[in-house]
Every structure is written in C-alpha cells, then in structure tokens.
Amino acid sequence: MIRLPLIRLIGTVLLVLLTSISAAFTPEPSESELESKAHYNDPLPTTVLVRVVAHRSLVLGHEVGGARVTMTDVATGQLLVSGLQQGESGDQTQIMRTPHLMDEPVYSSRPAAAFRATLELTRPTLVEITAEGPLAYPHALQRASTTVLLIPGHDLTNDGIVLPLYGYLVQVEHPKPGEPLIAKEDVMLRASVRTLSGALVRPHSDWDSRKIHIYAELVIGDRIVERLQMFYSGEKSRFEAPFFVPLSKDAPDGITLRVVAADVATGNFGLASAQYPVLSERLRPKKN
Fold it and tell me: Looking at the chain, which runs of residues are DSSP E strands?
C-alpha cells in the first residue's frame, strides 16, 4: 500500500530535477540576437523597378519622351515616389522574336528604359503603381496602373513590374493642320502610324500594317461625309489617301480630317485629327 505513493513521490522529484537541469542548460540570447531583434522595426531599403512598355511592342524610351511613374501607398494615399522613365526602347529581336520561358527576363536582358526607386519600408505595404505616356505626344497619352504588395527588404528588379500601354501614335503630316484648303482641289492626305514606343508600322514587319485597319474620315460639323482607305506609301510608317475638298458653302466652318488605326486582335487603337478652313475655288492662286 505504501509503494504507490512512494513511486508517485519519486516521479515528482525526478520531474522537478529534470526541469531544473533543462532550465540550467538553456542558453541565454547572444548580443547579436538581441541586437537583431532590436532592429526588427527599422525601415529596410526596398528597390522597385518599373517598366512602361507599348502593348505588343517595345519599351517607352527617350524617342517618345518616356513615361511618368508614380507610387502611392494604398492604405494612406501618401505619394511615395514619382519620376520619369528614360532610356532606350530595348532590343527588338530579344523582345519581339525570341521565345522565352516564364521566368526568363524579356526587357532586361539588354539595356532598356526603366524607372527605379528605393523605398524605406517598415511594414508590408500595398502600393498602387501608375504610369502614363508617351510624354512627347500628349494627344496619344495613355495611362495604366496596378497594385503590388511590397515586402520590406525584398527587391523587385530584373524586368520589374511591367505596365503595358495600349494604342498607336497617329500623326497627320499633310496637309499641315490649320492650313487653308481650296474647294474642289484634289489633296493627298498623309499620316504616320507607329506603336507607342515609336516602332514603325509597315507591311511585313513585327507590326504588320496589313493586319491593322488604317483609314481616314472627312468630317463636316459632326457628320462623317466620306471615309478614305489609307495605303502604305512605301516609306517608313507613312500612309496616304487622296480626297476632294468640299465646296466652301458646304463647309462654312471648315472640315476635320480624322485618321484612325485599329487593331482588334491586340486591342491597340490610335487616333489623330486636324481642322482646316475651306476657301472658295475663286481664291485659287493664278498660275503663271
């Protein structure tokens, strides 16, 4: 009868002894560990690289004025950083024609424009990154944004955060915008079409004009009076179509020429328009 309580007592004593021995051999935290914990809440430099690219084309570089990039803290609305993307448009062969695995860099394998910023972060931060460009062509300006969770000390480099902008750069080159036109004259409309990165659109290229609907509209007031199919002129990215200037009495406030580039396969669309006063044919200069 005495054995059972005695066994329990011995077990309790052994448990106490083992606990004491374990505590005696638990190492104290080192100074480096204590110092590390003391800096847990210090801000960590975190580098973020952003690339603004033309959708299905190259990077927006200095040729088209680059792009503006801003980063904003979503939780507080605070502007963290803002700046310009400048540099080269990138290697066309590498970007457009070279097959890539999912984790392989596309834009950063060769020098290409980018925006780089280093933020001092103390906590995981949800950031809205916004890009707009091309800055040299306000009429074609496009904007895109995305949200990214940034973790202190974890850099985003290589290709970085890629923001594609959709559209085309379309410019009316002839007749010059605002130039008076003579009624009933046969005029050749010429316009250029490029991607937002400045790459040339033309037949049989990486940006094949045969797959893009490029046309013009002659507008009087708010009415389209004629639609003109434009054809490649054989130089760079220029397209042209002839048209007859309407009578001045039919266009007392002048005409508008509107050039459209539309690629439904990629979602890229571009537009340019120019206004022209129309003069009576009686004001046509006399030939010597």
Answer: 44-54, 67-73, 79-85, 115-121, 125-133, 142-150, 156-165, 168-174, 181-182, 186-195, 213-220, 223-229, 231-232, 238-244, 255-263, 268-276, 278-279
Closest CA to 52 of 82, 81, 85, 28: 85
CATH number for position 108:
2.60.40
Distance CA 50, CA 113 (A): 9
Establish how many alpha carbons lie within 13 A of residue 165's alpha carbon, considering only the half-sphere containing its beta carbon. Answer: 30
* C-alpha to C-alpha distance for 232 and 271, rounded to whole angstroms: 17
Q: Please tell me whether residues 60 and 142 are part of one structural domain.
A: yes
Q: Are residues 141 and 70 in the same domain?
A: yes
Question: What digits encode the pLDDT tens for the residues 64-83?
Answer: 999 999 999 999 999 999 99
Q: Provide the whole-model pTM.
A: 0.83
Range of the domain at 191: 168-283
Apex 135 CA angle, 130 and 137, nearest 5? 130
In a domain, 11, yes or no: no
Instruction: Report the run of H or E that residue 19 belongs to, with start and end.
Output: helix 3-24
120 lies in some domain: yes
